[in-house]
Amino acid sequence: MNSIPTTALGLAEGGLPVLPLRADKRPFGLCRVCEDLACGGRPNMRIPGPCVCPWPCHGWAAATTDPNVVGSPQWAAAWRRARAIGYHPGGAGVTVVDLDNPTAVDWARENLPPTTTVATTRGQHWIYRGTVRSVNAVREGVDIKSAMSYARWLGPGSGPMAVVPAVVHELVKVKPAAWPAPRALVVPAPAGGGRCPHRSPVYLERGIAMAEQRISATTSGVHAAVYRTFLAVLAAHGRCGCLTEAHIGRLFTAAQAKGESVRHCETAWSNATTALGM
């Protein structure tokens, strides 16, 4: 019997924002429209159109403490297929320092204050009280998971929880991006003359944040993942002039943090606009 749904419901009732994860630790899309996608768009991302799910259903944004949602029929199929429970550290008010190998664990023991520790398959999670920006690969084998990120639930861990140390705050500081300022995207509004559905700040912010997360969570095939993410953002938000230089800049920052060059970012963006006929 799969105990994951029962455990997840108990965690949610205890105040931990949870979501179902696949065997490869990726989250589910929790509505039919968005299944297998990590951000806005339709199943075939070559077809422009917004996500029409009734609530946030991708990645960290889907994590919730609401037992009515966790136990809902909409989530039941995902829980039946789930092989792990994810949670949103930022939503729980904590930061996870994900140490992916013994060398990273040794570094933490030398540089970070003791805190709640959870064993993982290859290393450890060190959990601190307080939230910071989430950034992958701040050091070799070290990811910081907090705001706008998710981590695997592996148990409550051992040891008292310390406050996020200054070392972690320093690690997640982001340097100014080194790309030419992108122009605001201006393309024809959809036919029909109706009110633009993308002008909700919440809708647009959710889309950009999830796109950043999708890029940051990529562990292989970064070029392709960046292109697909740019394509999805443009499909959902690119036809009404909603995107600003700041939004595009955030996507470029996330891509460059994964090792993409400015040229690759510009090429991926240009190819995505061409594919969508913009």
* Mean of pLDDT: 78
| Span between termini | 50 Å
* Helix content percent band: 25-40%
Largest sheet: 5 strands, antiparallel
The poorly predicted ranges are 37-52, 175-195
Number of H/I helices: 10
Helix and strand composition category: alpha+beta
Strand content range: 5-15%
Q: What's the Cα radius of gyration?
A: 19 Å
Overall geometric form: globular
Main β-sheet, spatial strand arrangement: 4-5-3-7-6
Query: What is the total tally of β strands?
Result: 8
Order of helices and strands: HEHHHEEHEEEEEHHHHH
What does this structure look like?
There is one protein chain. With about 280 residues, the chain is of the alpha+beta class. It has helices spanning about 5-15, 60, 65-70, 75-80, 100-110, 165-170, 200-215, 220-235, 245-255, 260-275, and strands at about 20, 85, 95-100, 115-120, 125-130, 135-140, 140-145, 150. The strands form two sheets. A five-stranded antiparallel sheet has the order 4-5-3-7-6. Strands 1-2-8 form a three-stranded antiparallel sheet. Helix 7 (about 200-215) runs antiparallel to helix 8 (about 220-235). The radius of gyration is 19 Å and the shape is globular. It starts with a helix and ends with a helix. Residues about 35-50 and about 175-195 have low confidence and may be disordered.
How are the SSEs placed, and which strands pair?
Blueprint: H1 4-13, E1 18-21, H2 59-62, H3 67-70, H4 73-81, E2 84-87, E3 94-99, H5 102-111, E4 116-119, E5 124-129, E6 135-139, E7 142-145, E8 151-152, H6 166-171, H7 201-216, H8 222-237, H9 245-257, H10 262-275
Antiparallel strand pairs: 1-2, 2-8, 3-5, 3-7, 4-5, 6-7
